[in-house]
Amino acid sequence: MLLITCPWCGAREETEFRHGGEGVRVPPDGDDPGWTRLLYYRENPAGPYAERWVHVHGCRQWFHVVRDTTTHQILSTRRLDGQEGAA
């Protein structure tokens, strides 16, 4: 079981969270091919990977997670606004 540190609530078991996808920046003026790439094509790197998660059974806040895809170790978490969490 993964132990994920919510920037607001602290360390919790992974069952309290939901994966929200790749942590990419949404283009403000994207065209159809750009949106298609964003929505349907994902990289599958071995190593650190930026993702977004939501704490559904807690504070319901979205945050960034950097997870190693080969070991599933959580390397870092931070709020979407870039500030460090309170926990």
Account of the protein in words:
This protein has 87 residues and is mainly beta. The protein has one domain: Folate-binding fold (2-Layer Sandwich). Helices cover 10% and strands 38% of the residues. The chain contains 1 helix and 6 strands; from the N terminus they run βββαβββ. The strands form 2 sheets. Strands 3-4-5-6 form a 4-stranded antiparallel β-sheet, with no helix packed on it. It has a two-stranded antiparallel sheet with strand order 1-2. A hairpin with a 3-residue loop joins strand 1 and strand 2. The longest helix has 9 residues. The two termini are 20 Å apart. The model has no long low-confidence stretch (mean pLDDT 87).
Main sheet overview: 4 strands, antiparallel
- What topology, given as strand order, has the largest sheet? 3-4-5-6
How would you describe the shape?
A: globular
Mean pLDDT across all amino acids: 87
Helicity level: 10-25%
Distance between the termini: 20 Å
The domain count comes to: 1
H/E order of the elements? EEEHEEE
Say which CATH homologous superfamily is assigned: Folate-binding superfamily
CATH architecture: 2-Layer Sandwich
Q: What would the CATH topology be? A: Folate-binding fold
Instruction: Please give the CATH class.
Output: Alpha Beta
Poorly predicted ranges: none
Tally of DSSP helical segments: 1
Radius of gyration: 14 Å
The secondary structure category is mainly beta
Number of strands: 6
Which range does the strand content fall in?
Answer: 35-45%
